[in-house]
Amino acid sequence: MRLRASLYLFVIITIALVLITGLCLYWSWRNVEAALVQESYAHQVEKRATSLEASLHKLASHGDEQITADWLNQQWELSKILRAAPKLEPSRQLLLNSIVAHNASIRVMFERYSQLDVEAEKNTIRIHLSEMLSVKMEAMIEDSLQLASAARRDIKQTLPRQFLIIAAILLLGIVGMASYAHHLASWIRKTLFKMEHAFAEVANGKLNTVALPRSDDEFGDCANKFRLMNTQLQKTTISRDHLQKIVDDKTAVLEQLANTDTLTSVSSRRALFNRGQMEYSRARRHQHSLALLMIDVDHFKQINDKYGHQLGDFVLVYLCRTLESEVRDIDDVGRYGGEEFVLTLPHATMEGARDLGFRIQQRLLNEPFEQRGVKINLTVSQGLAVMTQAHQSFDDVLYDADRALLLAKQAGRDRLMILP
Amino acid sequence: MPALSEKTPMFFLLLAAAVVVILVLWQMPDKPFKKVPVALNIAVSRSPLSAPLYVADELGFFNPQCIDVNLQEVIGGKMSFEAVVNEQADFGTSSESVIVFNSFQRRDFVNLATFVQSDNDIKIITREGGGIFKGADFRGKKVGLIKGSASEYFFSTFLALEGVSLEELNIVALSPDQLPEALKSAAVDAVVPWEPYGYITVKALGGKANVIPSKNLYTLSFNLITRKEYLAAHPIAARCVLEGLQKAIDFIAYEPEKFRQILQDRLGLDNEFSSWIWQDYLFKLSLSRSLKRTLESQARWAMDNNLVEAGEIPNFNHFLNTHTLEEMNIEGVSFNGHEE
Fold first, then answer.
1. Model-wide pTM > 0.80
2. What is the DSSP-derived secondary structure letter of residue A223?
3. ipTM of this predicted complex?
C-alpha cells in the first residue's frame, strides 16, 4: 500500500474510532436520559397514587362531597399524567399498561362506590369495594415503584456496560493505532536508512554497489528515480580516482610530448635545459662532476642540399641512435637545435667524457650512415666542457661547451675540443 | 509499504477474544443447571390467561436440560387446582379466588407467582329479550356459574353493588364448557363464564347475546401453584418453570402478533376472538403485597357472604412463596414472605 493511502487509512480509522466512541457515549447518554425520565415519571405516578390512596382513606372515614370532588380531581390529574407517558420499551410499557388499567378500574370502582348508600346497615360491599380500591391503588404504587426500579437498574447496568464497551473499543483502537503507527514509523525509518546508505555510496563513488529494493509505493518511485540517476551517473561520470589517473596519464603523455623531440625521440630542447639545470644543481649540492658534450653534424646543410631534408632527418635519427647506444643510462641526449645535440653527463670526468667523444667519432667512422642506397660517412664536431667552480649555472657550462664546439669547427671539424 | 507482520493480526484476535470473553462472562446470568431434566406436568386452564404457558411450550422456552414439561389442558383454574392437590399434576394455574376458596380447607399448596391479570376476563352474559340489564333484574333468575371460583366471587360482588345477594336468585353450578349451551338452551337466564367461554357463548347465541358491562369492576389474577412438598423436593424445577414463563412473557411483549397466532392456534379460535379479548390481559411475573391484600379481602367477602363455611381468615403468608422469584431477581416481588 502506498504511504499516502496508509496515512489516509490511519486518519480514517482514527476518525472512525472517535466516531464509534462518540456514538457509544451518545447512546449511553440517551439510555441514561431515558431511564432518568422514566424514573421521574414513575415517581410522579407513585406520588399521585399515594395521594389518591390517602384521600380514599379520608373518604372512607368521613364521606364528604368536597373530599369526593378532590379525589376525582386527583384521579383526573393522574389520568393526565398517564396519557403523557414517555416512550418505553415493551417490557416497561407492560408496567405502564398495568397502571393505566388499574387507573381505569379505580375510576369505575369509585363511581360505584360513590353510589353506594353510606348509611346502609349492612355496607359490607362498600367496605369490600373500599378495600379493593385501596388494593388497586397499592397495586398502582407497586407498579410505579417497579417502573422506577427498572429505570434505576437500567442506569446501573448501562453505565458499567458502556464503560466496558468504550474501554474495550478504545483499548483495541489505541493498541491498533499504536501498532500501526509503530509499523509506519519503522517502515519510514528503514526506508530513510536505505536511502541514506544509497546516497553515501554514491557520494563515495560506489555507483555500482547501490541496490535499493523494488516496491510499488512512494519509496519505490523514489528508488526507481534513484536507480535511473545512478545509471546515468555511471554512464557520464568518472570517479575521482579514475579521473585523476586519466589526468595523470594525459599529463604524463603531454609531458612526454613536451620533453621529447618529435624527430629524433631524444630529449627536446626544453627537456635538455630542465635536465641540465637539475643535474647542475645536483652536482653542486653533492659536489660531484658534470660534463656537457655538445655535438654538431659536420656539413649537414650540404647533406640536406644533396640528398634532401628527408634523408637529412634520417641522418639525425641515425646519429641520435648512435649517441644513445654509447652513453650511460644516467646520461641524457638532448637536441639543442637543428643538427646540434648536447650530451649531459653527470658524474663524468673530463677523461671519461673525452673518451666518450672519441668512441662516438670512431663509431661513426666505422659505421657509416646507409639509407636508401645512400651511404654517408658522417663526422661530427664536439665541444666538451666540464663544470668548474667558475660556472654559476648550467647555461655557463653549456656556453663553454658551445665555445669548445666552435673551436672544433674552426679547427677543421671532425674532432673534439675542450675549452682551455 | 510492506504488510503488517504476521504476529499483529493474531495479537488483535487474541485481544478481541479476551475482551469478548470478559463481556460475555460479565453479562452471563447465574443459571441453575441440572443434567437430568425433571419430567413434570402442568395443569393448564384452557383460557387466554394461560397464554404464557402455551407460548413457552410452543417455542421451547422451558429449558430442556432442566425440565421436561407436559401441559395437561383442563377446564378452569378450579380443575387445575384439583389436579395439583390430587397429584395428577405438579403445577397448576388458578385465579386468586380459587386460592381463597381452598385456603379455608387446606394448607398443602403454595402460589409461586402471579403471571397475568385481567380486568375483563369474566363476563356476565344474558339472552336478548331476557329482560336482564342490571343487577336488580337478576332477582329470581337462574344464573349458571362455576362455584368456588372467580366466577362466583365476581358475580356476588357485582350483585352486591346493586344491592342484590346471591340468595335472591337461583345459582346453577356448571363447568365452564357447559355454560354456552346452558344459556343457548335457556336452561339458565344468564351465565358468568371466563374466556374463551364468554366468546363461545356469544357465538353460540348467534348475535342474540347481551354482555352486561363489567369491565374494570374486577381484576382477576392468574397464578402458578404447586404442592408444598413438591416444591421442597424440586426447587430447581420450579425455577425453570418460572424462567420459561418469564421468557414467554418477554416474547409476548416484543412479538404481540406472533403471540396472537399461537394463542389462536392453541385455543382453536379465530381472529375475531383475538380482537374480542385483545388488550384485556397484562402478563407479568409478580408476587405482591396487593395480591395478599386481595386474597384477604376476598376471604373476608367469602365469609361475610356465606360463600365458604364460617371460620377464620387464613394467613396467606403460608400460601405465598417468594423465594424462587427472589432468586431470579424478579422486581415484581413486593411481598415480604417473612411477614406475619
1. no
2. H
3. 0.85
